Amino acid sequence: MNDFGFGPDEVAAIHLSLKVAIWATLASLPPGIAVALALARGRFWGRDLLNGVVHLPLILPPVVTGYALLLLMGRQGWVGKPLASIGIVFAFNWTGAALAAGVMGFPLMVRAIRLSIEAVDTRLEQAAGTLGAPPLWVFATVTLPLMLPGVLAGAVLAFAKALGEFGATITFVSNIPGRTQTLSGAIYAYTQSPGGDAGALRLVAVSVVLSLMALLLSEALARSVSRRISGVA
Amino acid sequence: MSAPPALDLDVTLRQGAFDLVAQVTAGRGLTVLFGQSGSGKSTLIDLVAGLKRPDRGRIAVDGVPLVHTAAGLWLPPHRRRVGYVFQEARLLPHLTVRQNLLYGRWFARRHVTAEAPTLDSVTDLLGIGPLLGRRPAGLSGGEKARVALGRALLAAPRILLMDEPLAALDEARKAEILPYLERLRDHAGLPILYVTHAVAEVARLATTVVMVDQGRVRAVGAPGTLWSRPDLMDLTGGAEAGSLLDAVVGGRTADGLFHLDTAAGRILVPHLPPHLTSGARTRLRIPARDVLLSDRAPQGLSALNILPGIVADVRDDADGSRVVRLECVGAPVLARVTRTSADALSITPGQPLWAIVKAVALDQGS
Fold first, then answer.
1. ipTM exceeding 0.90, yes/no
2. Domain spans of chain A?
3. Which of A23, A143, B128, B161 is deepest in the core (most CB within 10 A)?
């Protein structure tokens, strides 16, 4: 990478951004699918409340979400303190950046997955049941494959959101080079320091390329998956 | 000890304004649940499959209890071993035909006996060998119906449930499926519960008919008997009204016509499907609109089949015509005539008349 004239902090920021976005996406997938299922299929008290809470990061100012994370998950937070005592620390750590990115992308992911679950024909699940398949097996072999395009779309949205997350991350884990400074944080730091234009431009280019690649990959994946599911091939 | 009935059901279910109270006992062979849409026949089949839950009652298949509300028993669908063939086939779109066929096989593995159908025997029976590598989206309606049937058979069910499996198909596709259903009924020894409102399917397939009307079982019996009962005319009548006659294939006349002996007399037909050889049993359907009536023995007519009988019953039909039931020797024949003609012949019960049969539908093996 140094062939392109990247400084060590810039390389670290690129690495960290990718690591944070990948972990944020992978870790959000299981709860994202579970919450989407509950919202699409569940009939329980408080469903609208859950829906509201999931969508909060989408409508709140990111700084507010970051501050809420600090209160909850910080070293002295209600959840962060007991977690810290068993060695899991989010505050001022790259894991905290991943958490912030995951939380910010969560509503986008849940929305996409929920729509795809609502499009699955429940009569196919019934048919699989009459053939002897227990509910979990039906979910794994019928529901999950049929909602896969939505899961992919949701994962890519969450990944893109995580790559670009700034406000909640900087509020929650600050902008420490080599530790919590992602691409967005590094670009911001460059724009705040005299003579940082060249570095900012280099990272902007990287950011554009990464986002574009993610988008193209997801389009290609979604196309091949939906072709397989609609069964034309 | 006699074998338990294939299906023993006694349930009540209230769904909004609809109220179902039914008791059905079905033996081997193919039992048709016959009734208009909304009569509750599909609900009955869903109760057996476990897709609906009765308020009260019990259901047993082959002596195995599936539901017994008083004892708190309710088996979920995947533990009932029922093969359900849905009207819309419901094949899994992301799997190939082979994967669809074998979907239930794993769960049925403990019940697969030496006589149970195999993938090879089912693909042979249904003629779907060439489709195995394809996906459902590329199949015709008739092919989908056959794959759905094969998939249900391979799950080694105790009973086969079919909800109007032919309703979405055109005549050519129906003719393609019917022989497979007959083979299944006659050779597989698997009890079949079959929902339909098509008289042609009753004539061709039914061993026993259960008449369902407004959430109640109106009558149970052999098709020929039920289709001759005047008190069931509101269900068996309508545009498709007609008589169902069991027949035995006899010899041939010098002119090459075939004899079919029925309780109403001898019927002559110009040709027979090849599998109906002398001595074979089949069922004839004589549509009421294809029967003319005469008050004297007709002379000089081109019609082959003229049956003498006594008027047993005359009733007005909704469309302004009258349906006359003629007792011909030992079986009834229905004729649909206009009110004007009925008045001209002054048709009254007890009067001798001749039925001129214009057309006989020989549904078997057509």
1. no
2. 2-230
3. B161
